[in-house]
Model the fold of this input.
Amino acid sequence: MRTWVIVAVCAALVGGLVGAGIGAAVGRASQRTIVEKFFPNRSVLAHPADVQEVLAKVLPAVVSIDTETFQGQSLFSGSFVEGAGTGMIITPGGEVLTNNHVVAGASTVTVTLYGQTTPRPAKVIGTDPTDDLALVQIEGVSDLPTVVLGNSARAEVGDSVLAIGNALALAGGPTVTEGIISAENRQLSAVDPLTSTPEHLFGLIQTDAAINPGNSGGPLVDSAGHVIGINTAVAASPSGNAPAQDIGFAIAIDTAKPLIPLLARGGTGPVAPHPGGAYLGVVVSTVTPAVAKADGLSVDSGALVAQVIPGGPAYQAGIQVGDVITRVDAMPISSASALIREMLTLHAGERVSVTIQRGSEQLSLGVTVSSVPSGSS
Done:
């Protein structure tokens, strides 16, 4: 019987934030996961035919990812840890988008295509640990089906979604769960206990679709079969009287899309580790009409500042939490991902004019952007 140990990423949210990846430890550092008997399933899907239509579009491009990671100082004092996660094919040539924590530190990576049982060799071509993203290349493939990347900015609370992935690495193909978007623009900070890598995730989609270990890197799709998120974590709490239930998080696809070209170029590190990228020193989320109404904002688009990094360029320029960034020089900023894209075009040391909305007042502040500090975004 296979033994399991869950790889967790802790954060101060209902006691903890658990990365939805799974690891199987070979050796002493393992524990057994017991699958308990469940009551008979009673489906409450209103339109099961619609679900089948969505799955027909997406499932062929969902893959399982298996890794082996050596932990220890030598072959005589360490062990190999097996891990499992999920990915989605984004190019016919076999580029797979997944979470960084699925492949972080892996000695070997293999990918199993949908409907097949033989793993294929793969290699990691780019990682972004801070934003928990990675791009993997399947070797020796062509003409593969791909997912359609949607527009997460159009998603609203209450929209139906499906989460697809390699839950618990169970044999027989991916697991599909159904739910709704239960909240938007969640922000979480965590440190991976295995690598000590900081993660500052923003603009997350919250869902009640069940997400389990092994789902990491899999798609969260809308009713049209378009990917609007990358399943990455679930809320967890210590054993007690108030366990967390049905709170899962997905990285909004609008956050990931501008970073994919960087990953494809072999980027390793935070948002701007290559020449031409710059650091502003803020954590932001996307302003939508719903967010503007809920928070009493005077603009209905832009990048809402949730955190200003002390000592960073934004801090020195006087940008504050609650400001909405609407323009950088002549470039309109309509979302968090638009701000990221603009930072990728700038050079460290360049001075720009950042337009912000602070309450009912519009301000233009001069900011000298810097190079990206290690572990920052």
